[in-house]
TrEMBL record:
Cofactor mode of binding and number, as noted: Binds 4 Cu cations per monomer.
EC number: 1.10.3.2
Cofactor(s) the protein requires to work: Cu cation
Principal subcellular localization: secreted
Species the sequence originates in: Panicum hallii var. hallii
Name of the featured protein: Laccase
UniProt family annotation: Belongs to the multicopper oxidase family.
GO terms classed as biological process: lignin catabolic process
Length: 587
């Protein structure tokens, strides 16, 4: 495997140093019609929300330099926006699609047109609904191809988006309403691979349909694996096969050999898989991993698909179909090691890590509680007198519901809507990863009280920012996939336990760190990232677990204009629709 990785790395460096001069940029136009659709799984017919009758939705297949224009028609009884996850949106913050952050939702019966350019990004990104829990079924892949058609790895025979998600029997709008009221007892019924539950799920003895990947022996396949799930990180394996990881979040990686992929919500991982096993059928499995604390009784979410070699009978020539050996559902360490093994592909012209830092943040990620009814004093420890919320530096983000933060900032009317004092550090240092804080009790009770506020942070253009995200054990022990809109950041290091600047800064990788838009902050561990504020606008920062978003694990960064028109946010484009008085876009 090491020899194969070395070969891929050699090809990568040759391809990336070659000149790219093929083709001209195009305008790629799509219409997305969002509507309801009834689907039957597990003996129940469920109403789901989809785009153009597809689950997952249509793939946007474009080339570096293209301009994308998508008209979204909303035929739901609920407002929504579409976010283009990982797209840098250089000088096009108006098209980011973050509900109540960059725009108000598209009203029922309304439409909205998004226009943005894709330059300087190559690989896999994705799009999804960004209001309530609708992204569970309203989502799809974005494939950005290099201008010259050449990858820094062997050209695959075929490219296959693999979208891992969840199947919810509960109506997604009702799920969001329950979470907003502090009810987190609902779970999906199954995992999905490209919308298929797989044959491990069955109803009255009849197995569900599986996703099938047909392959030819000796050929390689580029799997573009995206985690669209609301609740879980996933392990992904194919029996009898290995992967070469070559990219993530629209950026190339140093080739890395493994037999299992770990993908957190919001992440996109590109892998090469060579069909080099004896011709047969082989199971693929997507398995959710869950922290063992505080609730070890979380159900197993799993989907099983099939890799099917050409020339093999439908009954696998009478042989049993091998399945991969998966880790324990509650073993989160494979995720830690997988993410720790990823590095960026270093080549001439690659973005360099800023070596100076203008502003540093240490951001704790945890839970807290509010007293119900606006009371100042109440019984804590997850009592029925409180609502459990999520926090960053002990601030639970209050999401606007009638206005857009970007519009308020652009119009200089933000007073009374938000403040610009999001804290650089938590209010009180403590042993952030003390497992004694997970169960309700006297240790955590003093740390539990928090508050809701729309606290943002403003940066001057071209500021070098470093953030250390610290996952805590306060009332939970989740990992936290943190996603920043409008930016890629360098992932300098990760670790377990409490971040110690005297010790851990020495681990920072300045040579070839990953460039990512989503960083998986380990369970009771930390991750350090660095970026330069070179894209003016209003940019949402949040955990990509949907329950953490609803609970308030979020903020937004304001980036001021630079000194020239080319470094400034232009006025809203003609197709942009401003917020009405009802919190939806105007007709």
């Amino acid at each position: 495997m090491a020899a194969m990785a070395a070969s891929v790395l050699c090809m990568a460096l040759v391809a990336l140093t070659a000149a790219a001069s093929v083709g001209e940029a195009a305008v790629v136009e799509h219409t997305f019609v969002v509507h309801e659709m009834n689907v039957t799984h597990l003996c129940n017919t469920t109403k789901i929300y989809v785009v153009n009758g597809q689950f997952p939705g249509p793939t946007l297949d474009v080339t570096d330099g293209d301009t994308v224009v998508v008209r979204v028609v909303n035929r739901l009884d609920h407002g929504l926006t579409i976010h283009w996850h990982g797209v840098r949106q250089i000088r096009s913050c108006w098209a980011d699609g973050a509900g109540f952050v960059t725009e108000c939702p598209i009203p029922p019966g309304g439409d909205h047109t998004y226009r943005f350019n894709l330059t300087g990004q190559v690989g896999t990104l994705w799009w999804h609904a960004h209001v309530t829990c609708l992204r569970a079924t309203i989502n799809g892949a974005i494939i950005i191809r290099p201008k010259d058609g050449r990858y820094p790895f062997p050209t695959p025979a075929r490219e296959v988006p693999v979208l891992i998600g969840e199947w919810w029997q509960l109506d997604l709008i009702e799920l969001d309403r329950r979470m907003a009221d502090g009810n987190f007892d609902d779970n999906p019924l199954s995992a999905t691979i490209n919308g298929k539950l797989g044959d491990l799920s069955n109803c009255s003895g009849a197995p569900e349909e599986s996703f099938v990947l047909d392959v030819e022996r000796g050929e390689s396949y580029l799997l573009r694996i995206i985690n669209t799930a609301l609740f879980s990180e996933y392990y992904f394996k194919v029996a009898g096969h290995t992967f070469t990881v070559v990219g993530a979040d629209g950026n190339y990686l140093t080739p890395f050999e493994t037999d299992m992929i770990t993908v957190a919500p919001g992440e996109a991982i590109d892998v090469l898989m060579t069909a080099d096993a004896p011709p047969a059928h082989y199971h693929m499995i997507a398995l959710a991993n869950q922290p063992p604390e505080p609730d070890p009784q979380i159900p197993v979410f799993i989907s099983r698909g099939l890799v099917r070699y050409a020339g093999v009978r439908g009954d696998n020539n009478g042989l049993p179909v091998p399945a991969p050996l998966m880790p324990s559902q509650h073993n989160t360490m494979p995720s830690y090691y997988f993410h720790g093994n990823l590095t960026g592909l270093a080549y001439p012209g690659r973005h360099r890590v800023p070596m100076h830092v203008d502003e540093r943040f240490f951001i704790t990620l945890g839970l807290g509680s509010l007293c119900r009814g606006g009371k100042k004093v109440c019984k804590r420890r997850r009592s029925n007198e409180t609502i459990v919320v999520a926090t960053m530096n002990n601030v639970s983000f209050h999401h606007p519901t009638t206005t857009s933060l970007l519009e308020r900032y652009y119009d200089s009317t933000g007073e009374g809507v938000y403040t610009e004092d999001f804290p650089e550090n938590p209010p009180h240092p403590y042993n952030y990863t003390n497992r004694g804080l997970i169960p309700p009790g006297p240790l955590e009770e003093a740390l539990e009280p928090t508050f809701k506020a729309t606290k943002l942070r403003r940066f001057k253009y071209n500021t070098s920012v470093e953030i250390v995200f610290q996952s805590t054990a306060l009332l939970q022990s989740d990992s936290n996939p943190m996603h920043l809109h409008g930016y890629d950041f360098f992932v300098l290091a990760q670790g377990l336990g409490n971040f110690n600047p005297k010790r851990d800064v020495k681990k920072f990788n300045y040579h070839n760190p990953q460039l990512r838009n989503t960083v998986q902050v380990p369970r009771t561990g930390w991750s350090a990232v660095r970026f330069v504020t070179d894209n003016p606008g209003m940019w949402y920062l949040h955990c990509h677990f949907e329950f953490h978003i609803v609970m308030g694990m979020a903020t937004a960064f304001i980036v001021e204009n630079g000194p020239t028109p080319e470094t400034s946010l232009p006025p809203p484009p003609p197709e942009f629709k401003r917020c009405g008085t009802n919190g939806l876009t105007q007709p």
